[in-house]
């Protein structure tokens, strides 16, 4: 799938203290995301491929082929993508399970994406697994970690309403 200029490109997670401004959205959409895509598709992809992938999907309303680079964690055939409700890309998965392709380390991996939106045990479990595997992202989402680098229950509870999780189950051949 080709890169596109889409309104649902990834935007940064905004902390509760940050003002709601569009400067961050433009920075990610027009500067950082294109650079990340180029890096991930170059021979130098090893610098970022361990935890940044390109998610390819179809726009829910437009039907256009879209893609966005995202931090990810992987456990076997399950890939987790975490985001803030301040972003827009994940809204394309509100209609239920959706076919997607993840581009990881230059490999195209097809799968089915499922959205977890709104505070729930499934969302908290997925966020906990994501942050346990990629604790550097906890600060981005305003989640405090304990000494073992696991999310603190009260901090996760406070952040959960602002978080969304997309889980991709990769095809068995992936």
CATH homology group: Electron Transport, Fmn-binding Protein, Chain A
Q: Bin the helical content.
A: 10-25%
Radius of gyration: 15 Å
Kindly report the spatial arrangement of strands forming the biggest sheet.
Answer: 2-1-5-6-7-4-3
> Cα distance, first to last residue?
18 Å
H/E series: HEEEEEEHHE
The CATH topology corresponds to Pnp Oxidase, Chain A
Strand tally is: 7
Number of helices: 3
Structural class: alpha+beta
Mean pLDDT: 80
Folded structure, characterized:
- This protein is α+β, with helices and mostly antiparallel strands and 174 residues long.
- 22% of the residues lie in helices and 29% in strands.
- It has one domain (23-170): Pnp Oxidase, Chain A (Roll).
- It has 3 helices and 7 strands; from the N terminus they run H-E-E-E-E-E-E-H-H-E.
- It has a 7-stranded antiparallel sheet with strand order 2-1-5-6-7-4-3, with helices on one face.
- The radius of gyration is 15 Å and the shape is globular.
